[in-house]
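This section describes the prediction task in plain terms. A model, or a person checking by hand, is given the sequence of a single protein chain and must write out its three-dimensional structure as a string of tokens. No templates, partner chains or ligands are provided. The sample shown here is typical of the held-out split.
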Amino acid sequence: MGLDKLGLDGLDLAIIALYLAGITLFGLRFRKRQRTLRDYFLADRNIPWWAIALSIVAAETSTLTIISIPGLAYDTNLAFLQVVLGYLAGRVIISFVLLPHYFRGDLYTAYELIERRFGRRLRSLTAGLFLVTRAAAEGVRVYAVSIVVAIAIGTDEVSSIAIITVLTLIYTFEGGLAAVIWTDVVQTVIYVSGTLVGLFTIVHLVPGGWLAIHSVADAAGKLRIFDFTPDFWKPYTFWAGLIGGAFLTTASHGTDQLIVQRLLAARNQRQSVTALLSSGVAVLFQFALFLMVGVMLFVYYRVPSASFGTPDRIFPTFIVSRMPHGISGLLIAAILAAAMSNLSAALNALASTSVIDFYLQRYPQMDERRRVRLSRFMTLFWALVLFGLAVLSLHRVGRVVEVGLQIASVAYGALLGVFLLGVLTRRANQNGAMVGMLCGFVTELYLWTETRVPWTWYVMIGTAVTFGVGYAVSCLPAKKHGGGNA
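The expected answer:
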């Protein structure tokens, strides 16, 4: 099939503009409810489980997922689903190992748990590591927006990033976590519905429909899911997917404020567990959907991905050049929905950690009104930081979904190792945990920059190093360490 570009028309642009204005105004509906820090960062712990579940799905689904996962399947097959099985296993581990500890007391961030178990220094270290790595990973995600907007509307990449950042900032700044979660619910429905429309459109465009798609894809090996090869160096085998995916999700959903903040907003621990586990089922469906889109696009185009420049451009190019007018506008709006939901989640999580884990530790007497005002200022600050990082990412990354996961994975092993030291051992102390965390982080940096170890193993290796070194140092009898035992 040709790569001719038809472009968007007035109807498509109107749909995109209507979506951007509508979701921003919807988010602003929550502005008057933010009177306390609990309101702003935890939505007064009054969010139903199903809304939290959809918000978790939206928070872990960025533009990276929607444009890069189809590109990955276009080049390979459905093997990424093995990683998603690990995502499900990780959620079960969190439900039994970490969530009970989060619901003992009135916690606002994941890192308050670390102070309660070890001490303030380690809390600051874990929170600081989260801020640095989440900002770096999110910068790549925001950059991915520019790929879509530039293809669809023709604006330059910097302007594209600015438009999405400003609109997302408006409702996140005003409405806090309540605005983030409820706009996430709307945006999840939009981008899943839009992608389903895209899938059925491809079926109709391919001569012979689904039977032809299945026949060609099967012959090309595109429908293969499981790879039981005992090859450590392949990123998408059953073992790397299940084990690596489980460690990645246990870290990302159990120690990363981006997701923990949502789990803490539930009405009780039971609803939090229900939200987390049901979000896993939704994520499995969602990744299967995005991967199938990539496989079907391979059958439709039957040209190397290099013909599009990068694999990440394949799905956006198809939307703009081959989809019926109106539908293409809806799909571009759907991709922007994923970008905005992910960005709003990151802004609120970064702001909450900055205020609660750092500023209020030094100035605890601040009244509630000033606390909320400070929280809004930090939201604005992090929006500017992420905009800058996204601009720096231009033309410097490859397949964006893997780059984003690699950056996040570099910190996750060290974070998860510390949390497991806290909840699974009684002997580990603050000094031992800090040494272990440093060793785990350096190990993951080395794996990322100096080896060809697949990213799927980063978190497991980093966790093992952090836990092992941290426990061993804690057991040294030379002198007593600070940060008492549980």
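For orientation: Confidence is low (pLDDT under 50) at residues 1-5, 480-486.
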